[in-house]
Amino acid sequence: MRIGIYPGTFDPVTKGHLHIIERASKLVDHLIVSVAPNTRKAPMFSQDERLEMVSRDIDNMRDKHCEISVEGFDELLIHYARKKKATCIVRGLRAVSDFEYEFQMTGMNAKLDDNIETVFLMASDKWQFVSSSFIKEISALGGDMSDFITPNVKSRLEEKIKQNM
Questions:
Q1: Residue of 23, 64, 82, 94 marked active site
Q2: Is 76 exposed, middle or buried (0-12, 13-18, 19+ CB in 10 A)?
Q3: How do the domains of the chain map onto residue ranges?
Q4: Is 19 a catalytic residue?
Q5: 23 is an active site residue
Q6: Which member of 11, 131, 144, 152 has the lowest number of beta carbons within 10 Å of its beta carbon?
Q7: Which CATH superfamily is domain 3-163 in?
Q8: Active site includes 17?
Q9: Full pLDDT tens readout for the chain, 165 residues
Q10: What pTM value is reported for the model?
């Protein structure tokens, strides 16, 4: 069984993330979407909130080509992947700046365990400029981000912004 892991902070999950998830589900028999705590990024949403939003959006996805599960993790990615018996780690790339960081991380992961491949999926041109950071910033300033996030995430984001005012 080919198990893939798509790790991320997903703060919040965007339609770009969901597009990568749908495409990655064509490549493996089981895809684990792994939500990292990533306190370095000071997430707006707790890990539990992000797990719930990602799970709900995946439940509502039309095109799932394999079993998809959602889990939190808080350890070295390569250790987590090994524990889950993953054959690959899926990473989405939007721009050249993403590539530089991902290239370094892939090299380090290969040194730690060369049995786990990293698979890069280029973001669709429709989603290349979408980032969770932009979504949060524009939403906080009153912009409408509904083209880039699901209604589930939009309502949670609006609620969180009101709480923080």
A1: 94
A2: exposed
A3: 3-163
A4: no
A5: no
A6: 144
A7: HUPs (3.40.50.620)
A8: yes
A9: 999 999 999 999 999 999 999 999 999 999 999 999 877 778 999 999 999 999 999 999 999 999 999 999 999 999 999 999 999 999 999 877 778 888 888 889 899 899 999 999 999 888 888 899 999 999 999 999 999 999 999 999 999 998 876
A10: 0.93
